[in-house]
Hints:
This protein has strands spanning about 1-5, 10-15, 20-25, 30-40, 45-50, 55-60, 65-70, 75-80, 90-100, 110, 115-120. The protein is mainly β.
Amino acid sequence: xxxxxxxxxxxxxxxxxxxxxxxxxxxxxxxxxxxxxxxxxxxxxxxxxxxxxxxxxxxxxxxxxxxxxxxxxxxxxxxxxxxxxxxxxxxxxxxxxxxxxxxxxxxxxxxxxxxxxxxxxx
Length: 122
């Protein structure tokens, strides 16, 4: 019922920057929280940053000061600005959204995007 499409990944040198985008479409009344997660090679998927509909944010300690999450509620889109990239930031970045399909009486359903690869060379 909802599709999340990420874009903006790529190969970048250490110290560089990227901007990831994730657009949600489908049966959407409102989106509660949105977030970015990273799955590094051989590791479990971990939360990187989250943002509520009101704009409150949280960050993993490893990215504080370098990553900035933002969203455009009118476009159902979440962004992740990544600066000062490090080789350990390499991984597949997934976005997640908690979606109300019809009204706030529903239980929000969580959706994942297909992921976008970020590779940081040293």
